[in-house]
Amino acid sequence: MAKSKMLQVDTTERNAVRIGLYERVSTDAQAEEGYSIEIQRERLEAYVKSMADQPESIRHYTDDGFSGGNIQRPGLEQLIMDIEGGLVTHVIVYKLDRLSRSQKDTLHLIEDIFIPHNVSFISVQESFNTATAFGRAVIGILSVFAQLERENIYERTRSGMQKRIENGYWMGGHTIPFGYNYDAGKGTIVPNADAEIVKKIFELYIGGESEASLAEKFHLCHDRHVHAILNREAYTGVIRYKGETYPGIHEPLISEDIFRTARKCMRERSAKKLVTKTSHLFTGLLECGICGAKMRYQKWGKQGDKIYCYSQQKSKPYLIRDPDCDNHKINAAELEEIVLNDIFSMAVEYEENGESENHKPVKSTMEVLQEQLKVVENKLRRLYNLYAESGDEYLLETIGQRKKEIEQLKEQIEEEKRREELQGDAVGIQEKIKTIAGVWDLLSQKERIAAVRSIVEKIVVTYDAVEIVYKI
């Protein structure tokens, strides 16, 4: 009721001055340099006292510890609500960048919030207000420099991060490897109680244990967690940053020789997934299309083998993805016939295509990513040229987006390099497919398993539907 009553009064007293004083500080350093909330408040109140029109009311809107890079701040959001409710006629800040460091946000607040609601915006330090055309023009110019300063801060931060890593310090409190904690005082990572588990994982994996058995033994969530540990070079005492390796000051958990040996084992096991103790044709390739778990063969009386989801087998809880998975149990012989028929039909198709297929270049994922990177880098260069010619500040946002795209593509390229290293060389898969049908009857079961695994990435079973994902 109180708010409703105030709104009713505002509609009748149109000339009343109701001031909103906005104060913001993002860091303790800013407070020490003369931007503290108390100093801003004191100077704003002094300015109000010097105004010719004394205000009917004064409201303080404060954001302590919030960045000026965006407008998602509680104090500012409350100010906007009160402006829209007619409770504020003037907004006063000590300095322009207290309102925002973003040109886009500054202009949005002035043109979309303040002016439509007949609110004057005053900056004490810069001595202007938006009640005049000159004030509105000046604020647009000054906001450009606020934006530039923000980008300079960002560049300095990135440069500082690079220097920090070059000196061996960790990248901050995120992406901490399993087996370490981040020590903010030392600026690096230190071993914790799980460090011994990391050492044992490398030792046992090199000794022949699988990722799945190690995940179960050490109560880790999944074999992919073990896989990530075995690929983490930070355990040797180094830091990987933007594709480069730097010596770290943190304590290594394993030697470089152990890490290289483990990586060699991973490559060998990946390339020789072909070598297996099982006689089942698709063991290790089957995936449940309902929950994403692996699938297995099981004897099913006189009906032969069935294939079913590991989520339906309670004896291996670490392989369960969804205990309520209702995927069908499928006859193994029927599934094998479906997949082999598809492989053989591809072989016939490749053979019929002849020369044209042989000479048709097959682009790798790496080539596609590198081509995309070149395209985006060319776009970025053109944007820089446009910005140099026009000085159009709105191009900065697009430039920032292109920079992010380049970073993402570089990360994908690094990930693809690691995947290729583990997966091995897949060159010649087309030729393998072309020849497999003609020699199938001459192959032993182990040779057949090896041939299928050399061309098939995985087989996804969803109820009675089958999807074959080839390595090509």
Q: Outline, from the CA principal axes?
A: elongated
- Rounded mean pLDDT is 79
Note the total helix count.
Answer: 16
Regarding quaternary structure, what we see is single chain
**First-residue to last-residue Cα separation:** 70 Å
Structural class, from helix and strand content? alpha/beta
- Which residues form runs of ≥5 with pLDDT under 50? 1-14, 355-361
Helix content: 40-55%
Number of strands: 15
The fraction of residues assigned to DSSP E strands is 5-15%
Biggest sheet, in brief?
5 strands, mixed
Integer count of domains:
3
**Spatial ordering of strands, largest sheet:** 2-1-3-4-5
Radius of gyration: 32 Å
Walkthrough of the structure:
With 472 residues, the protein is of the alpha/beta class. The chain folds into 3 domains: 2-163, Rossmann fold (3-Layer(aba) Sandwich), CATH 3.40.50; 180-271, Hect, E3 ligase catalytic domain fold, CATH 3.90.1750.20; 286-470, no CATH class. It has helices at 2-12, 28-35, 37-49, 74-84, 96-99, 103-114, 133-166, 195-206, 211-217, 223-230, 256-271, 332-358, 365-390, 395-423, 429-439, 445-455; strands at residues 18-25, 57-64, 90-93, 120-123, 128-129, 180-183, 188-191, 238-241, 244-247, 286-288, 295-299, 305-309, 330-331, 456-462, 465-470. The N and C termini lie far apart (70 Å). Mean pLDDT is 79; it is low at 1-14 and 355-361.
